[in-house]
Design a protein that fits this description.
heterodimer; A: 187 residues; alpha+beta; Heat Shock Protein 90; B: 132 residues; Glutaredoxin; 39% helix; globular
Chain lengths: 187, 132
């Protein structure tokens, strides 16, 4: 994984496989604390304590097609390499919240990558799931709710709309990131 | 990458949507779902790390540009991590076929040869052998 957008796609994929109907994706940048919080919340099947304990073991997976699962171990690795940490809360039948904190003043902090591109693909490929995306930088915020897009009649199944929605997200994130502190390695 | 396109609000998006929908209506919309080509791009850790996103974006855009009625969606890992990015194509009334090592050039070949003409191309991953 070379950027955070890839992690986002990967972790959200876990939520989709857990049968989630609503998935929250949150990024919170705090300039004073030099941190970036990346959080995915879902209302899927959740995990029991046994699975939760083995979650960061690369040789644990619920799949039968292969015997390794690297998604969460990679996330843990990339946040810890910046001095951050990974936290997972889960309750069987209620869903899972996974939170990775990155130190943005650490040179090993991953770049954000194409968040807009991955997010639009997620929205397009999973029309039945409600996505709530929030990006906060200190006091500024950009939110995107798939239900709101639907209510406005935005049809992501049309390829032409897909690239327009991507531009819309990209422009908003770009505008937000202009206010980022110069100490941050995040880009 | 960061060029400003003037799409700043939901109202801007909605206006664009009306333009796009108007164009869509000119095309034959009454297609029956069984006649659609189904495309699934594997998008798990292995796929993402190998560039599945570029392949999926390419397929969405090119199938639309070339006027092929298709549903492009994502799936998890199919167990062919060694051959990522992998793409599963189901032509109407045909068995699904999985292609491995797909980049945008390969995706172009798959659209032109397999999706348009039904001709098999290199890189198929054999699966689900039926035994007698």
């Amino acid at each position: 994984m070379t950027d955070l957008a890839m992690h986002m796609m990967d972790i959200v994929q876990n939520a989709i496989r857990a049968g989630a109907e609503t998935i929250g994706i949150t990024f919170i940048e705090r300039s004073k604390k030099n941190t970036l919080l990346f959080r995915v919340t879902d209302d899927g099947s959740g995990m029991n304590e046994e699975s939760l304990e083995q979650l960061d073991d690369p040789f644990f997976t619920t799949r039968t097609t292969r015997r390794i699962g690297l998604g969460v171990p990679f996330l843990k690795m990339t946040c810890e390499q910046t001095g951050g940490s990974l936290k997972v809360l889960s309750a069987e039948g209620r869903g899972t919240t996974i939170e990775a904190v990155y130190r943005t003043d650490h040179p090993d902090c991953l770049p954000l990558g194409d968040i807009a591109g991955y997010l639009t693909l997620l929205l397009k490929a999973n029309p039945a799931i409600c996505f709530r995306f929030v990006y906060q930088l200190d006091a500024s915020e950009f939110t995107l709710d798939s239900d709101v897009l639907k209510a406005e009649g935005i049809e992501l199944q049309q390829a032409a709309m897909l690239s327009l929605v991507k531009q819309y997200i990209r422009e908003h994130l770009h505008a937000l990131h202009k206010d980022r502190s110069t100490e941050s390695y995040l880009c | 990458m960061n060029q400003m396109t003037g799409i700043r609000t939901l109202a801007d998006l909605k206006k664009k949507q009306e333009e796009v929908s108007a164009r869509m209506n000119l095309r034959d919309k009454a297609e029956n779902p069984a006649s659609l080509v189904q495309v699934k791009v594997a998008m798990a850790t292995c796929g993402i790390a190998s560039g599945a996103k570029e392949v999926m974006e390419y397929l969405v855009e090119e199938l639309d540009k070339r006027g092929i009625a298709a549903v492009v969606t994502q799936t998890g890992c199919m167990g062919y991590c060694f051959a990522e990015p992998t793409v599963e194509i189901t032509l109407p009334e045909r068995e699904p076929v999985v292609f491995g090592y797909v980049n945008t050039a390969k995706a172009d070949e798959i659209i032109e040869c397999y999706i348009k003409d039904g001709e098999l191309v290199d890189g198929i991953i054999p699966q689900n052998y039926d035994t007698i």
